[in-house]
Amino acid sequence: MSLIKTMLLFSALFLGMSSLVADELGDRLEKIMAVPVDQDYAEYLAEGCSSCHQSEQGTGTPVIEGMAKQRIIISLLLYQNGSRINAAMKSIASSLGDEEIASLAEYFSQMAESE
Amino acid sequence: MNITRRKFAQLMGAASVAAAVPYSIRAQSKPSVVVVGGGAGGATAARLIAKDSDGALDVTLVQDTPTYTSCFFSNLYLGGFRDFDSITHSYDDLANNYGINVVTGLATAVDRDARTVTMADGASVGYDRLVIAPGIDFKFDSVPGYSEADAEIAPHAWKGGSQTTLLKEKLDALEDGQNIIMVPPPNPYRCPPGPYERVSMMAHLLKSKGFTNSTITVLDVKPKFSKQGLFQAGWEKYYPGMVEWIAPEVHGGIINVDAKAGTVETDLDTFEGALLNIIPGQTAGDIAHAAGLTDDSGFCPIDATSMRSTVDENIFVVGDACIAGHMPKSGFSANSQGKVAAMNVRADLLKSKVFPAKFSNTCWSLIATEDGVKVGAQYEPIDGKITAIEESKFLSKGDESAQDRLATSMEADGWYNAMTSAMFK
Ligand SMILES: Cc1cc2nc3c(=O)[nH]c(=O)nc-3n(C[C@H](O)[C@H](O)[C@H](O)COP(=O)(O)OP(=O)(O)OC[C@H]3O[C@@H](n4cnc5c(N)ncnc54)[C@H](O)[C@@H]3O)c2cc1C
User: Fold this and answer.
1) Which terminus, N or C, of chain A has the lesser number of Cβ atoms within 10 Å?
2) What is the spatial distance between Cα B307 and Cα B323, in angstroms, rounded to a whole number?
3) Which of B336, B396, B421 is facing A54, going by the closest CB pair?
4) Across the A/B interface, how many CB contacts are shorter than 8 Å?
């Protein structure tokens, strides 16, 4: 088992998920990490996030630029399966497939936070 | 110039955007894009078209006022949560950061054959592609007795700017015991929860001044309204006895508004207020009508996959002026549509890639200090219509914790900053 997947399993168990659900999540994470990313598609999708996510620290919405790719993927998966609760993010994350998640996670992880 | 984009391009090892532009296009004079209306839809589109084409297009933004005062968060200004400067934005960054030619003036006509936009001063601007984003204009005669001139006495404040400050002045001048009457607009109108957020914010202001004898009467023309349960529970909780919402089947219909006398006559009774807030019915901004882009509904039909006008393939219509299927008329929606239009304008002129259109909306409303609610959904084109994805719909719950409501109100602040950056920075 990869390190990421082990870490995910721990945090998932911490969130009260069954080890089965956590294992599924781990498999999806590994799958998404391997999906090739189209730059133009990533940029297009990312515009949809920039109406809420600011590039500077402020109130309300977290800065996701510069966040680790795995963390972005896991967060989106957790909103999707309801383990992390925010109605707006659940609605948005649920409309994303593996390719979209991979593209967005790659895009935002490559951004430096303060730029 | 956007450093982060460049950096991403380098990291991905991909060709830069400029290099992707066919040489023949770069060699000739640049194709030109004109955007009419520098609000939520138009400013977003102009900014993205200029930013993502890296100088390969001439982009002109026509806006009648030198600065933009957003309607979104103007209710928070009324309630005392924001000052006027914080909801007013300059176009300087669009000009300086992206080379957008910002023209301050009113566009009065479009010659679709010659592909020119005529300005009030007689000047004309040519285009290869035109984005129309003028927001709304009013159907003053939808309210019996009310007129454009009356708006100086009984403001609608449903467009940002001088109307917003006029309503604020009148609200601030009220004394305890003086009453407010609101007549909300008929459907369809911009910002479905907006009138009721405004009621909450006006009530908040009166309450915070210690008023105990003033009331707000809402003489609605609709039998129900957006987030109704959440608003009515909030009014009961925070402003008991202050707000009365009267459904049309109860008051029987608006017979006459006399702005000077400060009265609204209905079948049921004649209501008197020291402040009347009358919000008339709405239609696409005048220029959309002048350009012949509207249908019988008074709004502009578009192709849901691209935001292209179904009347003219060189024109895109975004924001409140278009017929956006299930999407409400909101700043968030306009911004989302502006992105789709921008992608298609660039594809038309620079052969850049087009991806399937995706749309999104969330409307937040503040009911009281630290008590925010939200409604939203994701949308996609289905059978020519922008359609809500059923499972993606969400609405704040009546039994949420105070902490959830606080988090929601903070999200709205974050959105305002992000959204106005996506328009103006
Ligand atoms: C009180 C209130 C509260 C609201 N709250 C929210 C909210 O919380 N969230 C949300 O998402 N939405 C909210 N809205 C809705 C939001 O303001 C509109 O839906 C949004 O502004 C629509 O964007 P637009 O680009 O279509 O029009 P606008 O933003 O109105 O922009 C159009 C611009 O074009 C200019 N213009 C028009 N015609 C011409 C012309 N011929 N020549 C030159 N310039 C022209 C206008 O002056 C205007 O500045 C609210 C609205 C109101 C009234």
Assistant:
1) N
2) 9
3) B421
4) 109
